[in-house]
Design brief:
This protein has 170 residues and is an alpha+beta fold. The protein has seven helices and five strands, in the order βββαααβαααβα. A hairpin with an 8-residue loop joins strand 2 (17-24) and strand 3 (33-39).
Length: 170
């Protein structure tokens, strides 16, 4: 009798490369199968990179895309995973504010804007504020989510525009 398998796609998304692999959830020990590293710059989005990976390995895993599964509401493990991510993000953001004395937190990246309602209803803010005697200070900190699809390019364009305006007025 064949051993049952439940293939899941796993990914490690960095700034330059996205690393993908399959893993068998029924395996007695974690093992990465059919690993590939794809350059992010070669794809319009993470979804396109994931589709390319899956096409190249010729497998449709039974588990993947934690955010989509969590937001769909049918996958309890995915919802718990996303909830944990939001809570940890809140804790780390609160720590960063206290370390740097920030008055505003800007959260950038492609994933958080995809689940803003979930983030707002999660433990993010509770964990952000859970810093004992510093909670009152953290209450006054503004938290913003950058939703522009290319914030880095927009920032560079704004900086160059400001520099050009300074040169033109001199």
């Amino acid at each position: 009798m064949a051993t049952p398998t439940a293939l899941a796609m796993v990914a490690d998304i960095g700034g330059t490369n996205a690393r993908f692999a399959l893993t068998d959830l029924c395996s007695p020990k974690p093992e990465l199968l059919q690993q590939q590293s794809l350059r992010n710059a070669e794809f319009a989005s993470l979804q396109h990179a994931a589709e390319q990976y899956l096409a190249s390995v010729g497998v449709k895993p039974s588990h993947a895309a934690i955010v989509e599964a969590a937001l769909d509401g049918h996958d309890l493990v995915a919802r718990r995973t996303l909830a944990r991510f939001c809570a940890v993000l809140g804790s780390v953001a609160g720590d960063a504010v206290l370390i740097h004395g920030a008055r505003t937190v800007m959260i950038a990246g492609g994933i958080v804007p995809r689940f803003l309602p979930f983030l707002r209803s999660s433990a993010f803010r509770e964990r952000f504020l859970a810093k004992g005697r510093f909670a009152a200070y953290l209450e006054s900190v503004t938290i913003r989510i950058i939703t522009h699809p290319n914030p880095g390019l927009l920032g560079v364009a704004m900086a160059l525009r400001a520099a050009h305006q300074l040169e033109s007025s001199a």
